[in-house]
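Render CoA transferase subunit A in 3D.
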Amino acid sequence: MAGFDKVVTSYAEALAGLQNNMTVIAGGFGLCGIPEGLIGHIKQLGTTGLTVVSNNAGVDGFGLGLLLEDRQIRKMIASYVGENALFEQQLLSGELEVELTPQGTLAEKMRAGGAGIPAFFTATGYGTPVGEGKEVRQFHGRNYILEESITGDFAIVKGWKADRFGNVVYRHTAQNFNPLAATAGKITVVEVEQIVEPGELNPTEIHTPGIYVDRLIQGSFEKRIEQRTVRAQ
């Protein structure tokens, strides 16, 4: 069964083949469930001209914000970007191309891409700047716009547990965009907290089947919290 073993032992192996000007789909929501080690290694590689698809762009100095520091991201396709001052600066200066996408539409773009569906109709965004220039059709008396799905050269994903065959379990809200991203990469790399032997995971609890996973690495995670709110005493 050695041929089914997806485990690699270094980030260099995990991201082998990543080149300038590729598209990278990243899981996570805010700083929850982000592939910290994989992002950090992309920074070390110095890969540039990237199109990055993710719900958001991390924060200043952490997550995908690390890649903004060295201008490694050329274009960002995202839903929410309000936590990153450097992102704002690069957007306003014209250094960074940004395609803002409604959150549910972004999730469906990834899911559809992974399912081999090239495009789909949605009512979200009709009559707004999001819908400008897109095909419109009417179904049951309501207008819908055509949205193209998304696939990437690489998908970088953060899981909780996985077996050596690449079957992945996510923990609580860290599931977020990760299982969607995992299906949409030509090469999908999953970074997890624990790797177990095949047969140790309950099949009914697996979120991403190993068929979608090309490489698996065990990482360590800081798990920062974006904002801490405390009650005034």
